[in-house]
Amino acid sequence: MLKAANRAAVRLWQDESGVVLAVSTIVFLTLFMMASAIFSGGEKIRCRIELQNAADAAAYSAAVVQADTLSRVAAVNRAMSWTYVQMVRMEMDYIVDKWLWLTLKRWNEDNRVMRNFNRTGTCHIGLPYYSTGKGGVHKRILLNKKHYVTKEEIESARKTAAKNGRNYSILAPKIDQCRERVSAMNEKEREMINKLPQRARKTVEETLRANTADTWNDGFAGGGGLMYALKQEEQPLDKNFRVLELDDEEDFLRHSDYIPKEGKNAKLIFKNGTDDWFVKEYKDKGPGVQRQYKRGHPILVAEWDYKSTKWVQTKKGCVKIGQIEDKEPLKGPVKGDDNEIYDEQYYITENARPQVLREEFFAKGGSLVVGLTRRMNNPFKFMFPGQGEGVMKPFTLDGGNRYMWTVSAALAGYNPKPREDAKGRYEVTYEDNSQDKLWNLKTSDWDAVLLPLHRAWAKGTAGRKWQGETAGQILDEMKGGPWQPLYGGGGALGTQGAPKLMGGGGEVSYGGAEAWVLH
């Protein structure tokens, strides 16, 4: 028995039949394993590149929408500033012309009374037995306590004003148009800003769908399960913007370049009366830029005296039988706020509410951060669960689903030299300087800028000065979502369950992300 077994063993050892099959099996298994490894690595890299490109495109596209909104707001600010200047100038002209109109009207009324009283006498009719004018000088009127003019000079000034389109009746409909336009621009800016988050989210979704898709091998993992998260300020009107106030009027005037062209302050733009009788003041408490006539101010006051006597003929000659005399018009001095001409619609400007950016916009408030994730479809994961991801580990999410992910951030930046080509160098930091600097929504030259994660939520000030690094904070917050499905499933991470044979991963800490996050 032993000899037979020994002979059988020797024969099998010397028999070479089937060797090729064994060798072929080993070689092809090795080649298959190598090919699978190459495919697995290549597919992982492909997915990573696809995710990064899609996230970059989505963040940049959303920032383009943001830049478009800011450019439009800046353009409206410029139009509002120009309209505000025209409105103030026209209202000042309106008030002066209406005041002069009332001055002539009241003077004519007083003069008619003086003349008629004198005319009823039977002798010495006419001047110098009646006069309507300051200091007994007929037709002389005192304006603003210091300027003597004649009735004819006032009439001539009003005729010239009418010829130049500055008559109050001509100005009234133009002022109405300015008020309507300022009000409409106020509302349009609010509307554009309020719609910005919705437009940005829609842009992100459409861009991601156009740049990602399930592949055939995603079926092994139960679908790609592509999801995205968008971190943005959902209430930008309150958080990222503010309305200019009374003290900001001169900055507001720079939006339309009035100050650089016509002077360094509002008085040089609006001329006489600025801050004297047409002052910065709110009709109602609240932000905005508004001017109005200051009632009770000693400017825009017209005064004259009047005197009239009545004479009759007697045998002894002309005898004075009556007299009217006073040092003021019969109805008192004519003032710019007289009830006969005061009209709030033309004495108070429409409240201009231009929106400008807060400092918070140039940090977390304005940044658009897009996270994109998909299930990893690595076949080796099904065969060898629980293995580490190597260099890909920072770009995977734990929770048992083995999701690969990436994050990209962008922000709208402004051209620091709006009269020149920015050549791609757009500023994304805050500059606390309103002196002749055309940056805070004064220029409509805004564009999208991709940001490194370690700067996206950091506070940036003028000259590219940054305070803090934010990559770790962003990655930690983004990991928690909320994640929205694109297609192929969806839901929060960890709710779908891991594919068969795929083990859960270990917790990944992003606290030290500043050292290795390059995207």
Task: Explain the overall architecture.
The chain has 519 residues and is of the alpha+beta class. The protein folds into two domains: 43-82 and 187-242 and 357-515, no CATH class; 83-185 and 255-354, no CATH class. The protein has helices at 2-14, 19-119, 151-163, 168-211, 236-239, 249-254, 258-262, 266-270, 344-347, 379-383, 453-456, 471-479, and strands spanning 130-132, 140-143, 147-150, 226-231, 241-243, 278-280, 291-293, 301-303, 306-314, 317-326, 334-335, 355-357, 368-375, 396-397, 403-414, 446-451, 459-461, 465-467, 484-487. The strands form six sheets. Strands 4, 13, 14, 15, 16 and 19 form a six-stranded antiparallel β-sheet that branches. A hairpin with a 3-residue loop joins strand 2 and strand 3. Helix 2 packs antiparallel against helix 3 (151-163) and helix 2 (19-119) runs antiparallel to helix 4 (168-211). The longest helix has 101 residues, at 19-119. The radius of gyration is 41 Å and the shape is rod-shaped. The two termini are 74 Å apart. Mean pLDDT is 83; it is low at 382-387 and 489-508.
Notable characteristics:
41% helix, 2 domains, alpha+beta, rod-shaped, 519 residues
Average pLDDT over all residues = 83
Number of strands: 19
Shape: rod-shaped
Q: Count of helices?
A: 12
Mind summarizing the main beta sheet?
6 strands, antiparallel
* N-end to C-end Cα span: 74 Å
Approximately what portion of the residues adopt beta-strand conformation? 15-25%
User: Which range best describes the helical content: under 10%, 10-25%, 25-40%, 40-55%, 55-70% or over 70%?
Assistant: 40-55%
Content-based structural category: alpha+beta
Low-confidence stretches: 382-387, 489-508
- Number of structural domains: 2
Radius of gyration: 41 Å
